[in-house]
């Protein structure tokens, strides 16, 4: 685990509760969860299936809302954002990486990476240059014209990471990104996520903003990958235990 000194808080979660259902049948997914993640930090979230990891990631990423508590991302209180504000946050300041890759089958690797920038209406020339840079960063410069079906699982996940970086996010949320990969490929993908937050080169991916690297919050059930994180947070019965 890293011993680097990190100061700028990018994610702040305070007393978050989330339940599903009512009365005796209610499922308490999160029970007063609190933690912080700094810029340039890779934090792993572990816990058994059903422990609330995905629920927590969805709340931090602005895809779901808590029943109680406070979530800040990049200085923005998510409770104070309307639907347009949450949409802009997810588009511009949060990058998502999913277990199932989530690539569009009919688009090439380059086109998939460029989708977030199209939604942001980035200048086409700037978009093309950035797509080339991002594919180079994840080691897929020679695969730009291939479609997802022509790529291995590990290559598809690398495209997904490049896409998550497209708009220079402050936070990358990764939900079991190695779950469909073999152990060796999963390790390489986790190393890539680590490089994204630790590399000086990745710090230059701020899309024209004078910012440092993003932070990454990654859920994983693979104990062999936890040593690549700066910190590990364990979710147990809806509560956080920091290891």
Short description, anyone?
The chain is of the alpha/beta class and 243 residues long. It is built from six helices and ten strands, in the order E-E-E-H-E-E-H-E-H-H-H-E-H-E-E-E. The protein has one domain: Rossmann fold (3-Layer(aba) Sandwich), CATH 3.40.50.
Can you offer a commentary on this structure?
The chain has about 240 residues and is an alpha/beta fold. It has one domain (about 40-65, about 80-240): P-loop containing nucleotide triphosphate hydrolases (Rossmann fold). The protein is built from six helices and ten strands, in the order βββαββαβαααβαβββ. It has helices at about 55-60, 85-90, 110-120, 125-135, 155-165, 185-200; strands at about 10-20, 25-40, 40-45, 70-75, 75, 95-100, 170-175, 215-220, 230-235, 240. The strands form two sheets. The protein has a six-stranded mixed sheet with strand order 6-7-8-3-9-10. Helix 3 (about 110-120) runs parallel beside helix 5 (about 155-165). The longest helix has 16 residues, at about 185-200. The radius of gyration is 17 Å and the shape is globular. The mean pLDDT is about 90.
């Amino acid at each position: 685990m890293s011993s680097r000194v990190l100061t700028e808080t990018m994610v702040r979660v305070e007393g978050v509760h989330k339940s599903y259902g009512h009365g005796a049948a209610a499922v308490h997914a999160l029970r007063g969860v609190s933690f912080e993640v700094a810029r340039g930090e890779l934090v792993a979230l572990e816990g058994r299936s059903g422990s609330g990891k995905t629920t927590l990631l969805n709340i931090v990423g602005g895809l779901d809302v808590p029943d109680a508590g406070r979530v800040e991302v990049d200085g923005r209180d998510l409770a104070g954002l309307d639907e347009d504000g949450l949409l802009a946050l997810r588009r511009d300041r949060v990058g998502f990486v999913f277990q199932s890759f989530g690539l569009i089958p009919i688009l090439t690797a380059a086109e998939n990476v460029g989708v977030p920038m199209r939604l942001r209406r980035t200048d086409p020339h700037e978009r093309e240059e950035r797509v080339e840079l991002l594919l180079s960063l994840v080691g897929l410069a020679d695969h730009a014209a291939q479609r997802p079906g022509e790529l291995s699982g590990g290559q598809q996940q690398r495209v997904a990471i490049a896409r998550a970086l497209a708009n220079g996010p402050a936070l990358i949320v990764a939900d079991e990104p190695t779950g469909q990969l073999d152990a060796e490929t999963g390790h390489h993908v986790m190393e890539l996520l680590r490089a994204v937050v630790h590399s000086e080169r990745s710090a230059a991916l701020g899309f024209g903003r004078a910012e440092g690297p993003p932070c990454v919050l990654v859920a994983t059930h693979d104990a062999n990958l936890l040593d690549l994180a700066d910190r590990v947070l364990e979710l147990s019965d809806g509560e956080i235990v920091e290891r």
